Recover the amino acids of this structure.
């Protein structure tokens, strides 16, 4: 029997609150994340200002087996955004807490950066982490030794890793050596030309599962800067 280092949860849950100016047929009453928290996770000032104009809310939740998580999460987000669009509202994702500022037709599983935010709180200590991959049943990514001055290139590599994780989970356990190409990164960043981006430039890395912290620790074996020269 094959042992998988990363545990596979039985199910995954997506939770969205649709906020509208007018009351819909059904209404929920949930405490929303504080504005400071929404701002911390990337919500724009314009979206924060609109929250006060949309006092009515509907909670949309989807819980599915982890094997169905990716398409179900995509469909749940599209449903929430479409409902908000039809009623001049907006969508708050609960984990990570932020306003989702997309059109329904823009939602994409390959555009991995739509599904997580980067936590820079400990970047001065060299630590960079994702927040959001847990909704797929995945551990978050954690990188050590990241330099603030050059973190943007590392951010891009994280997008490529996340793209591959979302595409391959849970069929494949992510632990072990991996190669992330410039094409992976282009897909992860939502580049419209990703399919034709060269795949001959890459970085090698290793993913190790930290059971105590429930994170995937990423060790880069190449300098991400070599991808972009």
């Amino acid at each position: 029997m094959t042992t998988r280092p990363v545990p596979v949860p039985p199910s995954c849950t997506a939770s969205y609150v649709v906020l509208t100016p007018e009351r819909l047929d059904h209404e929920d009453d949930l405490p929303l994340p504080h504005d400071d928290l929404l701002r911390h996770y990337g919500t724009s000032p314009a979206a924060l200002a609109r929250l006060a104009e949309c006092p009515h809310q509907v909670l949309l939740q989807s819980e599915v087996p982890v094997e169905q998580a990716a398409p179900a999460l995509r469909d749940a987000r599209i449903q929430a955004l479409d409902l908000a669009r039809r009623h001049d509202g907006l969508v708050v994702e609960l984990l990570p807490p932020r306003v989702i500022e997309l059109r329904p037709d823009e939602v994409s599983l390959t555009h991995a950066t739509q599904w997580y935010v980067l936590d820079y709180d400990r970047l001065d200590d060299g630590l960079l982490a994702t927040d959001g991959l847990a909704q797929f049943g995945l551990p978050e990514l954690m990188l050590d030794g990241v330099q603030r001055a050059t973190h943007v290139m590392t951010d891009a590599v994280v997008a490529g890793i996340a793209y591959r994780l979302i595409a391959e989970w849970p069929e494949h356990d992510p632990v072990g050596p991996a190669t992330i190409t410039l094409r992976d990164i282009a897909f992860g960043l939502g580049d419209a030309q990703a399919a034709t981006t060269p795949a001959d430039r890459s970085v090698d890395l290793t993913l190790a599962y930290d059971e105590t912290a429930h994170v995937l620790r990423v060790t880069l074996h190449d300098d991400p800067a070599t991808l972009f020269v």
